[in-house]
């Protein structure tokens, strides 16, 4: 993960509507495409979701084995863009926000491709554009899924997974507002089962990341973040959001959580989880 995040933060910024944002999206798309090609895994693919701005979103999908569940995907998301809060053309490496989430789910995707993951229902990995502009990329995709009558089983957002604050011990912070309460309870269970760190609750107080786009479209969504939001990363949205402030062991904990989410719900058949997987 350190190698990937180091490369991802070499872009001067990843602003959604400039050439850096486009180039970084192309770089990320190539990493995903190469993983698929090198693994020779069947039933998995990746596509661009284009917008009317420069940076596209990315959707990678493991097809499900059960055709009756083809319209009920599980979604693991992160946002790929970055922003300097002073001016959009300034340096914004975005190591934590949200390079950490982007690379966390890229690592989960890599692990699943490597083992030839074949869930019962589709499992999708989304890397959204233009989150920093107001959740624009995820809104466009969620609205499209709603229009196409896609019955998403559940969505988890990975936005900032690499910083450990100074006020509280390392933990998963489960966001409790603008989320689905039942899915959030399930996410808490997965954190306790798959992770090695405590779980605490926190609140954003507003629609703070892409999970809110899915909630707005009527879908179940949940969000776990790196720590309590009263102890958040002071470097985000500045030129100092670089890998020197990233705890890669902490990122691994979020990779475990998203892996558990993908596997448990990917094998969920409506009344039970398939333990023969």
Fill in the keyword field for this structure.
277 residues, Aminopeptidase, single chain, alpha/beta
Low-confidence stretches: none
Structural class: alpha/beta
The counted number of beta strands is 8
Q: Residue-averaged pLDDT, rounded?
A: 96
User: Major β-sheet, in short?
Assistant: 8 strands, mixed
The percent range for helix content is 25-40%
Spell the H/E element sequence.
HHEEEHEHEEHEHEH
Strand line-up in the sheet with most strands: 1-2-4-3-5-8-6-7
How many helices in DSSP terms? 7
EC number: 3.4.-.-
Family: Belongs to the peptidase M28 family. M28E subfamily.
Cofactor: Zn(2+)
Protein name: Peptide hydrolase
Characterise this structure.
With 277 residues, the protein is of the alpha/beta class. The protein has one domain (2-266): 3-Layer(aba) Sandwich (Aminopeptidase), CATH 3.40.630.10. Helix content is 36%, strand content 15%. It is built from seven helices and eight strands, in the order ααβββαβαββαβαβα. The chain has helices at 2-8, 19-39, 95-114, 136-147, 181-194, 211-216, 248-266; strands at residues 44-49, 57-62, 74-79, 123-128, 154-157, 172-175, 199-202, 221-225. The protein has an eight-stranded mixed sheet, sandwiched between helices. Helix 5 (181-194) links the parallel strand 6 (172-175) and strand 7 (199-202). Helix 5 (181-194) crosses helix 7. The longest helix has 21 residues, at 19-39. It is globular. The protein starts with a helix and ends in an 11-residue tail after the last helix. It is an enzyme of class 3 (hydrolase). Its EC number is 3.4.-.-. This is Peptide hydrolase.
